[in-house]
Amino acid sequence: MAEETTFYGLLEDIEKYLEHERDEGVQRLEVDRAVLEALAKEPEAEVAEEVVVEAAPVPDDFQSLEEVARHISGCTNCELCKARKSTVPGEGNGAGPDIMFVGEGPGAEEDAQGRPFVGKAGQLLDKMIDAMGYERAEVFIGNVVKCRPPKNRKPLPEEMQMCLPYLRQQIRLIKPKVIVGLGGTAMEGLLGKPVGITRIRGVWQEYEGIKLMPTFHPSYLLRDPSKKKDAWADLKLVLAELGREPRKR
Predict the structure, then answer these.
(1) Which H helix or E strand runs over 99?
(2) What topology does CATH give the domain 65-242?
(3) Closest Cα partner for 126 from 134, 243, 226, 219?
(4) Residue 141 near residue 91 (C-beta atoms within 8 A)
(5) pTM value?
(6) What is the rounded CA–CA span in Å between residue 80 and residue 118?
(7) Within 41-114, where are the H helices?
(8) Which tens digits make up the pLDDT trace of 203-240?
């Protein structure tokens, strides 16, 4: 940019000089051909230096969920940060709850409010939690990724990889008795490999010594209500593990 400014400044000075000479009555000036050729060339466009930004490592020694949430709010480790309105770290009982629910990622309502599972799928999850005999505030609800993927698409592998350290830190701090993985993406993040949710739902898994129950995501149940019976069977297995009964109606 400085080179370009100097070039055009020089042309302006030459123009002023020629106007002065004309006004003084000078009819002809001799100019070296090499100078004319140099002036005829446009300055080379400045090439911006490519800047490579590496993802900032996520600490592995957070002392509280609030500290995790603050770090998430400033995270720019993947492309999802560019379009978000809010980060959605999760919410609920962070001190040894019976159950921690883990979903895929925020949707439009969650992105707007900064809270997990507050849209239609969240309303169904609230009914599931209530049927189990819990209040929403008694469990913890979070997601694999903390920012909304565009058009609610599945998070890309690299996006999940960048965000999973936050979930791992939350689980370490929360220490839930049981984790419920809501859908294939949540289970993929927790197990570290692609899985078929239809095949593994209702079959106990394990995450870092914590029992992990895979079941259908509430949004899937909204699309296919016939699978609600299967999801309820999975949740009753969770209750049996915890020594509890469903809420009586």
Answers:
(1) strand 99-103
(2) Uracil-DNA Glycosylase, subunit E (3.40.470)
(3) 134
(4) yes
(5) 0.77
(6) 20
(7) 65-73, 108-113
(8) 999 999 999 999 999 999 999 999 999 999 999 999 99
